[in-house]
Amino acid sequence: MALVNEHFLKLQKNYLFADIAKKVNAFKATHPEANVISLGIGDVTQPLAPAVIQAMHKAVDDMATKEHFHGYGPEQGYLWLREAIVKNDYLARGIHLAPSEVFVNDGAKSDTGNIGELVRWDNSMAVSDPIYPVYIDSNVMNGRAGVFENGKWSNVTYLPCNESNQFIPQIPDHRVDMIYLCYPNNPTGTVISKDELRKWVNYAIKNDSIIFYDAAYEAYIRDSEIPHSIYEIRGAKKVAIEFHSFSKTAGFTGVRCGYTVIPKELTAATMDGKRVELAPFWDRRQCTKFNGTSYISQRAAEAIYTPEGKEQIKQTIAYYMENARIMREGLTELRLTVYGGENAPYLWVKTPENTPSWKFFEQMLYGAQVVCTPGVGFGLAGEGFIRLTSFGDRNDCIEAMRRIKEWLKA
Amino acid sequence: MALVNEHFLKLQKNYLFADIAKKVNAFKATHPEANVISLGIGDVTQPLAPAVIQAMHKAVDDMATKEHFHGYGPEQGYLWLREAIVKNDYLARGIHLAPSEVFVNDGAKSDTGNIGELVRWDNSMAVSDPIYPVYIDSNVMNGRAGVFENGKWSNVTYLPCNESNQFIPQIPDHRVDMIYLCYPNNPTGTVISKDELRKWVNYAIKNDSIIFYDAAYEAYIRDSEIPHSIYEIRGAKKVAIEFHSFSKTAGFTGVRCGYTVIPKELTAATMDGKRVELAPFWDRRQCTKFNGTSYISQRAAEAIYTPEGKEQIKQTIAYYMENARIMREGLTELRLTVYGGENAPYLWVKTPENTPSWKFFEQMLYGAQVVCTPGVGFGLAGEGFIRLTSFGDRNDCIEAMRRIKEWLKA
């Protein structure tokens, strides 16, 4: 008889956003007059840049004529897009990559989820805590995470990120094969300096580990000292795969386009000690299980690298970061301890008097009609924090701060 | 040290289309004046339907306003599209499905490639021969196919499809856990009757197997007796997962949208004999490793279910099928044995005098300047055949037939 992959049965139910919705709905049912503002959502709200809209209309028109029709594109993405990425996101920062090292995808979630296919199922892994759940769940599905005991996966090394280490995980005292890092970080909104990132690259070189570096929020970095790419660190090409997304950079959450970089230098070992390049593995994986991203989405992505496109997406990012500033200042004035929100669209707010995350969530919902995301939903190290996002509308943001102020003063 | 997934090293290099391109380029270099016509390509050439173009322009405009902007959609696809699929592709044929049994994707290749994640890596499998390479290669990557010996994978049961069985594979004399079937078939262009398909469903029920049924070409079926969906067979919902694509139905190879059906009734076993539904597994898989298909692509797909959309895609399909008729008649007149091309966009042509596929390919290239795909490229059972596709332009098709006639008569 056909047997199921029983690793799926080990997956913990992730009720975070469902639980939030349930509690918000319960509140709304008993307070039908209330105007609830959500600062919990991780999705963008502002329209796409005009240059992107224009490029997509043109791409749609291409599809209406025999001469300009585009059928199957390269599984790795169109060369014009890969060249624009290499030139603008890397060469402009002194990083030399070939277009063949860039793999265009339909968003970072697919690739961060699928990338584990390239390495043995029993490689050991480390993740920061709190964490974006995909990094762990995708590894539970292939058996790599082990079994779930006392709130943790047996084969996963958790790297707590908290106030005491300024949200920079400590280098483990043992070796691990795979390390997931995300900076600017979701959910804490914190960033990593070149010096701290260098420690990780050196650790990976010394231990022959692979770093899976999620740079989905790099466009929100304002501080010129903070690295946008792990390849700004010498030697990183040997040990790191980097994930980028246009979702937050250009509001593409509904358009679906991103990319993954696997440098030629990146290798891993076979059981008998041979070195093998991983880029050709990924190329083969994509050619077998993926058929490229929509032509229209790729033309949309190309448009954000035009002078107008760049300027327009910069404005939208500035809009969100102004939201972040308003929230940061408002909450700091209220004597709350706030992390993030300066080089990232997320604010990681310490609850007053060590209130548990979920309790504070309810208090704020009932007291100010503002929805946040309880930090503990991202892992045990998130307890006592909430996450706020700056992706909302300006007026909502201002009104939410006014209400929180009124509520906390009462 | 990080260890690679060594199953990737077992993958056979697939040089089929690269080898074709190389030979065609060599010919062109020595015959610069020649006007080579390709009847080998599996990609569509005609523009998208006007209703689809209109829907995509509207969807792009939605993304330009705050009110109609669409960010992350449901990982499973928008309900309006899932409802249109259920109503038009199933209910119209007397098949009752809930929208929750339909999972919208970015094309059938992703899902046929990823679906194997749901079952144990050591389940046994059977495939028809010749075959679309993804079914095997995706299983090589997770170790299920075994090792490659004498042109075959050790853990794969090959089901030859040839003239003697009218391209309908024989039910195996042993049990297998997973069976890949594709009808209308790529590459042979043949179809399966309800009676023959029923044998497979009954085999799967008896042996507790799962059928992966690829119906990507169902829109090309003309004969009212031929099933469009495996769910036309009683009991199939218990044992079959069905893959659909808009790529050939509506020319979406560059738009990227399709869907997979996993009925609620479909279950597989755990090691201790419990039954587990697979639809929730797939739901969890998609929510973890996929973020939905482009909003614009989903609106495009929705448009093909409107009265105008239906009529327009029917016209394009009729255009391709008229190409198929022209080729079929032309080749039959030349006393070639031709299969397919009546309910499918592919023609499977027997080479004269048992000429090997690659030899005939070269002869036709040099003799008529027409490119085909050598049948042996799809598997050993394809030797002595070539595949022609009807996705080209009408004039090319007519001209190719004229040249082949002249060449074969000479």
From TrEMBL, chains A, B:
Chain's gene name: dapL
* Protein residues bound to substrate: Y15, G42, K109, Y132, N186, N291, R387
The protein, known as: LL-diaminopimelate aminotransferase
Q: Which cofactor does it need?
A: pyridoxal 5'-phosphate
Q: Modified residue N6-(pyridoxal phosphate)lysine is at which positions? A: K248
Does Cell inner membrane count among this protein's keywords?
A: no
Against PANTHER family, the record matches this protein to: AMINOTRANSFERASE (PTHR43144)
Q: Which InterPro entries match?
A: Aminotransferase_I/II_large, DapL/ALD1, PyrdxlP-dep_Trfase, PyrdxlP-dep_Trfase_major, PyrdxlP-dep_Trfase_small
The lineage is: Bacteria, Pseudomonadati, Bacteroidota, Bacteroidia, Bacteroidales
GO BP annotations listed? lysine biosynthetic process via diaminopimelate, diaminopimelate-aminotransferase pathway
* Listed GO MF terms: L,L-diaminopimelate aminotransferase activity; pyridoxal phosphate binding
Q: How does it assemble?
A: Homodimer.
Which keywords are on file for this protein? Aminotransferase, Pyridoxal phosphate, Transferase
Q: Which residues form the Aminotransferase class I/classII large domain?
A: 35-404
Q: What is its EC number?
A: 2.6.1.83
Classification via NCBIfam families:
DAPAT_plant (TIGR03542)
Native source organism of the sequence: Prevotella histicola F0411
The record describes the protein's role as: Involved in the synthesis of meso-diaminopimelate (m-DAP or DL-DAP), required for both lysine and peptidoglycan biosynthesis. Catalyzes the direct conversion of tetrahydrodipicolinate to LL-diaminopimelate.
Task: Name the residues that bind pyridoxal 5'-phosphate.
Answer: Y72, A108, K109, Y132, N186, Y217, S245, F246, S247, R256, N291
Its recorded reaction(s) are:
(2S,6S)-2,6-diaminopimelate + 2-oxoglutarate = (S)-2,3,4,5-tetrahydrodipicolinate + L-glutamate + H2O + H(+)
Query: Pathway of this protein?
Result: Amino-acid biosynthesis; L-lysine biosynthesis via DAP pathway; LL-2,6-diaminopimelate from (S)-tetrahydrodipicolinate (aminotransferase route): step 1/1
